[in-house]
Amino acid sequence: MTERLFNFSAGPAILPEPVLEAARSALWTFEDSGIGILEHSHRGAYFTRVIEEAVANCRKLAGIGEDYEILFLQGGASTQFFMAPMSWLGNGKTASFVNTGTWSKKAMKEANVFGDVHVAASSEDENFSYIPTNDEISWQDNAVYAHYTSNNTIAGTQFTSIPTPPSSMPLLCDASSDIFSRPIDIGAHGMVYAGAQKNLGPSGIALVILRKDLIESANEGLPSMLQYRVHAKAGSCFNTPPTFGIYIMGEVFKWILEQGGLDAMAKINSEKAAILYDFLDESEMFRGTARKDSRSNMNVTFRANSEELEASFIKEATAAGLPGLKGHRSVGGMRASIYNAFPTKGVTALVDFMKSFEQKNK
């Protein structure tokens, strides 16, 4: 059997090995059913237990109260980019956004189809290398909701505290790339959503945590598949849902709980990222691209002294069993994505390789 590599891909990304092992067995036969998890009906007792357990563990992980619905929806975070504004905008209504990179801009573009977009703050002036502080954010007073992206995979930045719009303005968060990597105050948000393919499971599915009063206030004149109330009423089973994705997400929730929950994950992730950042701060060849007070613990972005060195580094690292380090095509450079499931020993292996590469190319 081929040995598993240290997968630095930004997504679809690494999953916990115990989850993969459980899935391998469940593909053949789930529990004692004689039927694989991919083949079970979403209406049957076996899958009903899967989804109910996933919801319960999600609530347990983040302390999510019964005033919030937990939904598993198709289309990843990109569908939420338009599903949210089409639910609450229209008729000249405005949403207020903090623009911290590509994914913020994509969300704003979709919102602009259904209403007006107000940019409350932006870090585009410095190539999205930092996170605006609360003092630098000016929310539009009459905005229907506020929106931010908690972690920016391309720029390698991450909010260290939750933005604070007026209490009357629901706060929406795209947490796709750092969901459950640290404690999160769900009660400070009207909605938190995340594409699964970075920290939760396979691509194509999104976790949506949504306050019930917002569901009731959403536009009713939408197709059924695009109404949160329809999915909430049906327990995420209005149509045939992505059952395998939900199963994997449920197993990831269990795994995080077994690690000690979100406080433990935050400690592990902080220590893991520090290994790489400490090296970057000392290196004469490599340098981090995000401002120190805005650095992400999930996506470490960095450059070398020349593009030629970068190309050589990426090629040699891949050959050495360290794939996925090429930066996003829009910015170049390198990026090490070290999500929850990424092992500390993989970061240490990368730093050892970088030290060797630097020494060799002096």
CATH architecture classification name of the largest domain: 3-Layer(aba) Sandwich
Q: How many discrete structural domains?
A: 2
Strand order of the largest sheet: 1-9-8-7-4-2-3
CATH topology of the largest domain, what is it called? Aspartate Aminotransferase, domain 2
Report a brief summary of the structure.
The protein has helices at residues 17-28, 45-62, 76-88, 102-114, 212-217, 228-233, 243-259, 261-282, 307-319, 344-360, and strands at residues 68-74, 94-99, 116-122, 145-149, 151-152, 157-158, 171-174, 191-195, 205-211, 287-288, 299-303, 334-337. The protein has 362 residues and is an alpha/beta fold.
Question: What do you see in this structure?
Answer:
The protein is an alpha/beta fold and 362 residues long. It folds into two domains: 17-259, Type I PLP-dependent aspartate aminotransferase-like (Major domain) (Aspartate Aminotransferase, domain 2); 261-360, Aspartate Aminotransferase, domain 1. The protein is built from ten helices and twelve strands. The protein has helices at residues 17-28, 45-62, 76-88, 102-114, 212-217, 228-233, 243-259, 261-282, 307-319, 344-360; strands at residues 68-74, 94-99, 116-122, 145-149, 151-152, 157-158, 171-174, 191-195, 205-211, 287-288, 299-303, 334-337. It has a seven-stranded mixed β-sheet, sandwiched between helices. A three-stranded antiparallel β-sheet has the order 10-11-12. The protein has a two-stranded antiparallel ribbon with strand order 5-6. The chain is globular and about 65 Å long. The two termini are 38 Å apart.
